[in-house]
Amino acid sequence: MPKNIANKLLPAEEVLWVLTCQPDVEADIGLWLQHSDLENTWQSSTDLKQIRQVLLGHTMATVLIDMRTSPHQMLSHIRYLKEHFMNCSLIALVDAQHSHWGQEALKSGVDLFVAKSDMSAQGLSMLIESLKVKQHRQSLLVASSDPCTGLINGPLFFDRLNHALQVAVRHHCRTGILLVSLDDYATLVESHGDELCDSLLSQVARRLNKTVRNSDSLARIHEGLFAVLLEDLHDEVMVAHIAQHIQQQFEKAFDVHDQYFSLSVTIGGHLCEAGELNGSALYQQTQKALERASSNGKQGLWFYVQEMNFKAMARLNMLHGLERALEKNEFYLQYQPSHTGKGFIPSGVSPVMCWKHPTAGTVMPEIFMDLLVDSGLILEAGVWMIERACEQLRYWREQGNWNSRLQLFIPISEKQLRNDSLVKTLIRQFSLNKIESEQVIIKISEHTAIKNVDVINELASRIPNIGLAIELHGSSSGYNSFSYLKQMSVDYLCLDESFFQFMHVDHLETSIATVIVKVAHSLGIEVMASGADSHYKVEKMQALGCDCLQGKYFSPPVYAEHWARYLMDH
What we know:
CATH superfamily of the largest domain: EAL domain
Helix content: 40-55%
Distance between the termini: 93 Å
Strand content: 15-25%
Number of strands: 22
CATH topology of the largest domain: TIM Barrel
Number of helices: 19
Low-confidence stretches: 1-13
Mean pLDDT: 84
Structural class: alpha/beta
């Protein structure tokens, strides 16, 4: 390469070299690179040893390998460079008509291949810059990983913790930590050595990975101490549920080189409100909880806030009760009627899941529904609700207690919406019970709708004419932008009771409801108002122009066998 092209080197960590087989091609490459953003930075050589000596003194480098002549020899050079210089980015230069050599180069270890006739010098510069970014990320990943378990290490965990706390402030949610300590780990290392314990830790990490959600982070802090970062929490029960699940993972012995080890863990936990603590304070308080758990003996579990210990345990007991309820068929449905805003004609029903507790009696959904969703049991319970509601609709129709004006509103959580089985369940139930899809309205929250536009449109394409209702909450910030409504076919906007709870004194909520109704009607969307529990509210809802009303003013949820009488009376 001409000297005026190679009179300057980049800093030590960014050396650029061209490896060629024949000196007469150096000028050709030099003229090409002269027009790049990296001009005057390249060195060229036909001697691999010369390049090797230079690379030994640099942490990062990019080598452009000319394979247009002697490709077989260059493949061996590529393999050598890849094996001995891990931080070296390798780019193969091939003839456009011989791209198969580029494929061979990829197999041998280059990061990419280019053809000079197809790639401009500026384009090559951009590729090299992207390679640097990729290489930097990979080096960070290696530096942030625990070599024994493959989990993230302490520094990266604390970085994620601080980021999660910042996000929690914006999203008004909670952040939790679980510290999981292997009991008697020091004694184990003393007795069996580091090598065996490393294999054991690797198995522990795999089991712990099964207990955390995809959105959570699992790290090995040091020795036998692991940490779980739980983000986007709204209820302490999820922290307690995961903690208990972790303990269950240690009920089975570990098999390491045909030796069996029975291990137990002690867990300390903490859950903080958005903006309450910084990362260091949250971790320190969780450490104190772990110390308290350790003082209670092996397999201990303790939360930093004492109130949480009792509340979380109570919620866990309820969770076990819900699991039993699904097994023993303790759930049943009631149906909340809805009426037209004009004339108060029945327009549909919404199934309400109730729990017939063996000792506490009837438990209404506001007590357990959040727990059902957070724990994931809503997937099984949701299928049960859809099946029972569709069967009931068929029975009403056969008895003459259902007509084409009525619609069935089925509430669906985000977990259900994103689950692949939802569409299959709906299609199967519609077919079994001979239900037209336009008779059913899927009801989801506004938050779920905004985050899952593509999922909703996919559902609508697979089940044509199925209805969609989006529920708005008075405390939501989403109603200041309805752009998402244009991206999907929406039949109803449902205003929950918080819009009308204090409407006699809170004129702001009334004003917001007025705007929502006008926007909805301008888009051809009907508005359903919940919380119609007094004559005053019903009149206000009518004045706002709400198309459907739902609430105790008309009726509380009714049993399925009372629906025929309800229709006759209304």
